[in-house]
Every structure is written in C-alpha cells, then in structure tokens.
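Extended Data, panel c. Modelled sequence:
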Amino acid sequence: MASIVARTGKSGRVSYQVKVKLKGHREQTETFRRRTDAMQWGQSTEAALREGRLTATSESKRHTVKDLIERYERDVLPHKKDQRNPKRQLKWWNDEIGHKVLAEVTRAVIAEARDKLANQATRSGREKKERKRSPASVVRYMAALSHAFSTAVREWGWLEYNPFTRVTRPKEARGRIRYLTDDEQPRLLGACKASDSPLL
C-alpha cells in the first residue's frame, strides 16, 4: 500500500515522500515536489511489485559488481573445469568496476573498460615482453564477466538483462592455416594406426 507524507524543508519548500509497502517485498521510497507525481509513482510502483516486474530492478541497485563476482566464484566457478583463467580475468574486472552497483553498469561503462583492457600493456611469451592484449584475450576477459551477468539474470534475478550482449567485442584474428610436411604425414598416420582408438 502506498502512503504519502508531506515534508517541509528549511527553505520552506514542501516535498512529498511516498512509501510503498507490500508483503514479501522491500519497501520502496521516493520523494517528489508535486503530490500528483508522488501518487502516480506510488500506484505504478505498487502495480509493478504485484506483477513481479520490480524485483530485478531493485536488486540491481542493492548489489555491486564485487558482490556478483564473489557469488559467482563461490557458487558457479567450482563447477567449471577451467577455474584459474576466469578468476584472473574476474579479478581485473573487480579492480576496475567492482565498486559499481549493477544498475550503473551500462554499455558505455563496459565499452570504456574494454578499451582500457585492449590498450593495457601485459607481459607475455617466453621473453616476457610487454605488448598490448590481443583481441582474443580481450574477448575472453569480456566473456568471463558476461557469463557471471547472465547467471545473475537467469538464476538470481538481480538484473533484467545482460548489458554485455549489447557491447561490440573485438574481432579475433583468423587462425593460422598450417599443412603437414612430407615428413610429418607418415608419422601422424603411423601414430593413428598404432593407437587403440577405433576412431583413429
């Protein structure tokens, strides 16, 4: 049920605080300058709560990206074969935008982080030379957090949609095509014949 309380500030200006209380839901509160706006908001918010349309919206304002990553690492990651790489990738995201509440994570926020990720120098290879991350590496970093967001949408009800689905990912370079040499061909066929696998 929506209730409206008129409040007078130090300047003498009147504002209207509306509260919507519904069993099984968190209390929703908002303040307006006009009573008619407060009444409209109260009615639409109450209807949205009854129809279950406001749950994810309110949850996205309660949880941070850090909360999402911590729950994902605790509940989802242990069931994946590869845990080390996603943990490293999720740590980067946590350091970068972990403080933001989920409602603040827009396409623009993700795109800015993606560009920073792509331009950051990283040490790789045997010689540990500094070089920019490859497009494929940036895609993997994005996929790690995107999967966590998808889980929050599908299973936890923290979000209405995954903002990563609307952000362009870097194009990965096509893999190098390599042919067997004349020396490698018979060795590969010999190894296949010696194998116990019926498929080989």
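The mean pLDDT is 85. This feature is highlighted in the accompanying rendering.
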